[in-house]
Design brief:
285 residues, alpha+beta, Alpha-Beta Plaits, 2 domains, four-stranded antiparallel beta sheet, 10% strand, membrane, YitT, transmembrane helix
Length: 285
C-alpha cells in the first residue's frame, strides 16, 4: 500500500528544488541585507557573515556536515537522503542567487513577505517529506536523549537562542521584526501542509435525517453516516448524521439542511486530513 496522496518521486524532488530556491531568495534578498535573524542555521550564517564575512552558503554547509555525519550513524543514510539533497540545494541557491535588497530596509514588509516566501518554500520541502537539516535535525538528536521534551519544544529553545544572539548583535528592534516573520513562516507553512487536505466535518441533528441524507447524497454525491444518539433532555432516540465535504460544499450542506428542517442543529468543524474515497485515496501497488 502506498502513502495516501502518493506522487511520483520526481514531483517530490521538484518540490524540494523549488522550495529551497524560495527559501534562499528570502534569505539572500530579504533577511541578509537587513541582518534579520529568524533562527536556524541560516540565522547563524547571517550573524557570522556580519562578524567575520563568511558566505552564507559556506556556513550552511560547514554547520550541517557534523549534523549529517551523526544522522548517518544514528539513522542510516536512507533516512536522511532527501534532507541531504535539500540541504545541498539550499547552499547551492544561496551561492548562485544574487544578494539584492528588494525591500529597501522596510522591516515590516521584510518580516511579512520574507515570512511568506520562506514559509511557502519550507512548506514545499515538507510536502516532499524532507527538511533542510539544520536545527530541525539537531533538535531531533537532542530529543533522542531528552525524551521528556518534544522536538518542537527543543527546536523553539534553539531558535530562540539564535534570535536572541541576533538581538544582541544587531539590536532588539530587528529581533522583534524577526519574531513577526517567524510567526508568518509558521502560518504559511501550516497552510501549505494542511490546506491541500483541508475539509469540513458536519454533525447534523434533525428529525428528517433520511430526507437530509438522501439530498446530500443526490445533490453533492457525498456519503453520510447515521450515528445512533439519545437526547439527554427528552430521553428520545435520535439519529445524528455525520458528513465530510469540501470547504465549498459545506455551504450547500447548510442550505440543504435549512431547506428541509429549519430547526435542525448543525455542528461544523475542520477536518485536517481525510483518507478514503473522494478525498485522499489509498492506492495498492
Amino acid at each position: 500500500m502506498e502513502i495516501p496522496g502518493n506522487r511520483p518521486v520526481y514531483m517530490d524532488y521538484l518540490f524540494m528544488t523549488l522550495g529551497t530556491c524560495l527559501m534562499a531568495l528570502a534569505i539572500n534578498s530579504i533577511y541578509d541585507p537587513i541582518t534579520m535573524v529568524t533562527g536556524g542555521f541560516t540565522g547563524i550564517a547571517i550573524i557570522l557573515k556580519a562578524l567575520v564575512d563568511i558566505p552564507l552558503w559556506l556556513t550552511n554547509i560547514i554547520l550541517n556536515v557534523p549534523v549529517f555525519l551523526i544522522g548517518i550513524k544514528v539513522k542510516g543514510f536512507r533516512f536522511i537522503a532527501r534532507t541531504l539533497y535539500s540541504t545541498v540545494l539550499l547552499s547551492f541557491w544561496l551561492y548562485v542567487l544574487p544578494r539584492i535588497n528588494i525591500l529597501t530596509d522596510d522591516y515590516i514588509l521584510a518580516a511579512i513577505f520574507g515570512g511568506v516566501i520562506s514559509g511557502v518554500g519550507i512548506g514545499l520541502v515538507f510536502l516532499a517529506r524532507a527538511t533542510t537539516g539544520g536545527t530541525d535535525m539537531v533538535a531531533a538528536f537532542i530529543q533522542h536523549y531528552l525524551k521528556h521534551y518534544t522536538i518542537a519544544q527543543i527546536l523553539q529553545v534553539i531558535d530562540a537562542a539564535i534570535v536572541l544572539a541576533g538581538a544582541y548583535i544587531f539590536g532588539l528592534n530587528k529581533a522583534l521584526y524577526a519574531i513577526i516573520s517567524i510567526v508568518v513562516v509558521s502560518q504559511v507553512t501550516d497552510g501549505i501542509l494542511e490546506g491541500l487536505k483541508f475539509s469540513k466535518l458536519a454533525y447534523i441533528i434533525t428529525d428528517y435525517h433520511d430526507e437530509v441524507a438522501k439530498e446530500i447524497m443526490t445533490s453533492l454525491g457525498r456519503g453520510a453516516t447515521g450515528l445512533n444518539a439519545t437526547g439527554m433532555y427528552s430521553s428520545t432516540e435520535k439519529k445524528v448524521l455525520l458528513c465530510v465535504v469540501s470547504k465549498k460544499e459545506i455551504v450547500q450542506v447548510k442550505e440543504i439542511v435549512t431547506r428541509i428542517d429549519s430547526r435542525a442543529f448543525v455542528i461544523v468543524s475542520d477536518a485536517r486530513e481525510v483518507l478514503g474515497e473522494g478525498f485522499i485515496e489509498f492506492k495498492l501497488n
